[in-house]
TrEMBL record, chain A:
Record key words, sorted: Amino-acid transport, ATP-binding, Cell membrane, Membrane, Nucleotide-binding, Transport
Protein name as it appears in the record: Amino acid ABC transporter ATP-binding protein
Similarity comment: Belongs to the ABC transporter superfamily.
Record has Zinc as a keyword: no
Domain ABC transporter positions: 6-249
Species whose genome carries this gene: Plastoroseomonas hellenica
InterPro entries the record matches: AAA+_ATPase (IPR003593), ABC_ATPase_HisP-typ (IPR030679), ABC_transporter-like_ATP-bd (IPR003439), ABC_transporter-like_CS (IPR017871), MetN_ABC_transporter-like (IPR050086), P-loop_NTPase (IPR027417)
CDD domains according to UniProt: ABC_HisP_GlnQ (cd03262)
Topological type in the membrane: Peripheral membrane protein
Cellular compartment(s): Cell membrane
GO molecular function: ATP binding
TrEMBL record, chain B:
Protein name per the record: Amino acid ABC transporter permease
UniProt-listed Pfam families: BPD_transp_1 (PF00528)
InterPro entries reported for this sequence: AA_ABC_transptr_permease_3TM (IPR010065), ArtM/GltK/GlnP/TcyL/YhdX-like (IPR043429), MetI-like (IPR000515), MetI-like_sf (IPR035906)
Domain of life where this protein originates: Bacteria
Gene3D superfamilies per record: MetI-like
Length: 277, 221
């Protein structure tokens, strides 16, 4: 299909005797936001890290924008030349749980370094790209600050801008709000929702069910290295079919605020209903 | 009876000490010129984990780190020319001995500094699409080198002082020249007081310079 950005077929990953991914099939279409849910150890982060080859996948195929990644050898195994992987990583942006900004560079430099070193942009061009992307995540006024001078939420937004500056075909988000103080989660989720509205293709590992419900086009529930259940947010989150999915959702929603509190406008970071998006 | 200090006799022979100082600088400088690139290269090769090579480099590094400097100087002055069938001056022998030893130390300093950079930094650089050379140059080394500055300075100071061991093979660095000045003036106390002050002053100035550099490249943490 022409509008497929990512197609994963039968992906496996072993760590020694540990079989972490046991045959993942997943397709992400252009402009789609897919959220991956699952308990820790279910393989969701490993899947993401295999998709930009921070971990080398085992058996299986990954197609990016209709082209097979790597070269198939005679024995059917796929070889991944380093040069091809670098080129792929430039087209697949990644944001990490721990931000991983470069601490010896200002926010602006963090965003400029990729375009300058990898896309061959001049300093002036890279500065314009950095400004545009920092603006997009609402943090342009911190361009000259160093990472250590920023809050976690601000650092994470700079990290998003850094990935965006490479003009990727899609973005991977690996539990990007899990290391944040609760009050800083909203600003990062808002930036991500904005990206979604701008048409960015996104694959998101998160524990934020409200975000999944309101922003995702599709929700995938992983368990023991396979996709256990998948569907629209309404289907998977409100009407799960498999017992394991139900257990997972129940434990995540064990304690909830009464309904009327949700109806109150809870400030600028409200993510309560889909219609608001 | 109180000792009567007389520096005038020593100052009349200041040309000896100046020449010695110049040779000391030359020795330290040329040894450092070997040590820094060598240390960086060895660190990189060891980090690349090439099966046999990494192990060989580890052993060689340890040999140079555990040998007393004076033993290395004697070895490169007396043994190496015979084994290698070459003929070279004392300057070359000392430069090799101290340069290689400091290179071995520096390799460990570089390696430690590079390893100490957080895994997330490597991953973030990789995820952007950087190859290993770009990643090392723009992301890892700038952070590693900042952390290495104090231990760098310590090692350079050690090297600088170890150049005085070249006197043992009569190379004309400052201690050797001071010996000569002392025997000509019969003023060893004054002569070696001046030599001690020379080392103190130069190292003190370098330490100030290093601190200034450290402040200059510091980033908020």
């Amino acid at each position: 299909m022409a509008d497929e950005v990512l197609r994963v077929e039968g992906l496996h990953k072993h760590y020694g005797p540990l079989h972490v991914l046991r045959g993942i099939d997943l397709t992400v279409r252009r402009g789609e936001a897919v959220v991956i849910l699952g308990a820790s150890g279910s393989g969701k982060s490993t899947l993401l890290r295999c998709l930009n080859f921070l971990e080398m996948p085992g058996a299986g195929r990954i197609h990016l924008e209709g082209r097979l990644v790597g070269r198939e050898a005679r024995d059917g195994r796929i070889r991944y030349p380093n040069r091809e992987l670098s080129a792929l990583r430039m087209r697949v942006g990644m944001v990490f749980q721990q931000f991983n900004l470069f601490p010896h560079m200002t926010a602006e430099r963090n965003v400029m370094i990729g375009p300058m070193k990898l896309r061959g942009l001049s300093e002036a061009e890279a500065r314009r790209v950095a400004a545009a992307n920092l603006e997009k995540v609402g943090i342009l006024e911190k361009a000259r600050s160093y990472p250590a001078q920023l809050s976690g939420g601000q650092q994470q937004r700079v990290a998003i801008a850094r990935a965006l500056a490479m003009e990727p075909s899609m973005m991977l988000f690996d539990e990007v709000t899990s290391a944040l103080d609760p009050e800083l989660v909203g600003e990062v989720l808002l930036a991500m929702r904005q990206l979604r509205e701008d048409g960015m293709t996104m694959l998101i590992v998160t524990h934020e069910l409200g975000f999944a419900y309101n922003v995702a086009d599709r929700v995938v529930f992983m368990e023991h290295g396979v996709i256990h259940e998948e569907g629209t947010p309404q289907q998977v989150l409100l009407n799960p079919q498999r017992p394991r999915t139900r257990d997972f959702l129940r434990s995540h929603t064990l304690f909830r605020l009464p309904e009327q509190m949700h109806d109150d406008p809870p400030g600028p970071f409200a993510l309560t209903t889909r219609e608001q998006g | 009876m109180a000792y009567e200090w007389d520096f005038a006799a020593v100052f009349r022979h200041s040309d000896l000490l100046l020449e010695g100082a110049a040779n000391t600088f030359r020795l330290a400088g040329s040894a450092l010129l070997i040590a820094l690139p060598l240390g960086l290269a060895v660190a990189m090769l060891r980090l690349a984990r090439i099966p046999v090579l990494s192990w060989l480099l580890a052993i060689t590094t340890d040999i140079f780190r555990t040998a007393p400097s004076i033993v290395l100087i004697y070895w490169f002055f007396f043994a190496f020319p015979i084994l290698a069938g070459v003929d070279f001056a004392g300057h070359t022998a000392v430069t090799l001995a101290l340069g290689l030893q400091t290179g071995a130390y520096m390799a460990e300093v570089f390696r430690g500094g590079i390893i100490s950079v957080d895994r997330g930094q490597w991953q973030a650089a990789t995820a952007l699409g950087m190859g290993s050379a770009t990643r090392m140059r723009t992301i890892i080394l700038p952070q590693a080198v900042r952390r290495m500055i104090p231990i760098f300075f310590t090692r350079i100071t050690e090297l600088y002082k170890a150049t005085s061991l070249a006197a043992a093979i009569s190379y004309a660095e400052i201690v050797q020249m001071a010996n000569r000045a002392a025997s000509e003036t019969f003023r060893p106390m004054e002569t070696f007081t001046i030599v001690a002050l020379f080392f103190f002053t130069t190292i003190f100035c370098v330490s100030r310079l290093v601190r200034a550099i450290e402040r200059r490249v510091a980033v908020p943490e």
